[in-house]
Amino acid sequence: MSQLLSFRALIGLSLAVAMFAFLGASPLKAFTSTLQRAGMDWFSTQQNASASLTPRTPVYFFSHGGPDVQYNTKHPVFPILQQIGREITQQVKPKAVVVFSAHWMGEEGAIHVNKEENTDLIYDFYGFPDHFYQAKYPNKGDSELAGKIMVMLSEAGIQSYGVNRGLDHGVWSGFNVAFDPETNPLNVPLVQVSLYKTEDPHAHYALGRAVAALREQGIVIIGAGMSVHNLRDMHYMFEGNSNPMPYTVSFDNALKEAVEVDPALREDKMAAICKRGDAKQAHPFMDHLMPVYIAAGAAGEDWGKQTWTLQEGSFGWAQYRFGDVATSSKL
């Protein structure tokens, strides 16, 4: 109704211009200027209304597990990843997905962006049964979106390179659960972007901030890692003990507290946990932690929420969402 009234107002102004033409140039000039301003305001309103039709997407952090996660249907995380996947496909309904995986580090001072459209899988693990190396995950890249990401990074002062690369298991193993090709296919372009080859939380937070505007275009950003990831202590689990290590509990809890603070304080709070005494026990290498900083950076002023966690042996399985889903049904 407001749009119709605005349009009628423009018509009325146009008719008034004809009348003022009889009264002299000055009144006509002044009134034409008013008409132009009204027209600009009207078109601006239409643009804003059009933009509002695409709700800002939430940002996600997946604790993705190993390459066995897609086969271990009895593990407690399996139905959780399925539930998150359905939330994304059925409620968020993204136009594309951009993912940052713990298993791809670019350079210390540069980010790599996968511009390949026909993306193969990378089997970046060893010692697993043969069928793990036959796994498939149908997906389609988007070179145009990859180029857009590189422009956004450049505008933020971040150097990047476009490369042709496959998807690593940090993406496809968890995505095979969340976005099962048979029961819950993603059916939108998927572009993977690297981490930095550093353990700098602020740099990764800034990386997320640089691509945050993708959310306004209906694109979902996902960081894929683990909230606690210590492969060195896995042997305790092989001995039949799944009780969490003390550092698994303390660090997973500390991460939750840092993620869920006021967004204005979040970056510093999250950076501080990398200096905790248990940080290098929870993450001997920080590659699986850095994606949550990217997710938090992309979240901007949106609050973070831990939607689920499991503290198991030397692993933390926390799942996070930043921002709201645009429907009433949430995890």
From TrEMBL:
<keyword id="KW-0560">Oxidoreductase</keyword>
<dbReference type="GO" id="GO:0008198">
    <property type="term" value="F:ferrous iron binding"/>
</dbReference>
<dbReference type="GO" id="GO:0016702">
    <property type="term" value="F:oxidoreductase activity, acting on single donors with incorporation of molecular oxygen, incorporation of two atoms of oxygen"/>
</dbReference>
<dbReference type="GO" id="GO:0008270">
    <property type="term" value="F:zinc ion binding"/>
</dbReference>
<dbReference type="InterPro" id="IPR004183">
    <property type="entry name" value="Xdiol_dOase_suB"/>
</dbReference>
<protein>
    <recommendedName>
        <fullName>Extradiol ring-cleavage dioxygenase class III enzyme subunit B domain-containing protein</fullName>
    </recommendedName>
</protein>
<keyword id="KW-0479">Metal-binding</keyword>
<feature type="domain" description="Extradiol ring-cleavage dioxygenase class III enzyme subunit B">
    <location>
        <begin position="58"/>
        <end position="309"/>
    </location>
</feature>
<dbReference type="InterPro" id="IPR014436">
    <property type="entry name" value="Extradiol_dOase_DODA"/>
</dbReference>
<comment type="similarity">
    <text>Belongs to the DODA-type extradiol aromatic ring-opening dioxygenase family.</text>
</comment>
<keyword id="KW-0862">Zinc</keyword>
<dbReference type="Pfam" id="PF02900">
    <property type="entry name" value="LigB"/>
</dbReference>
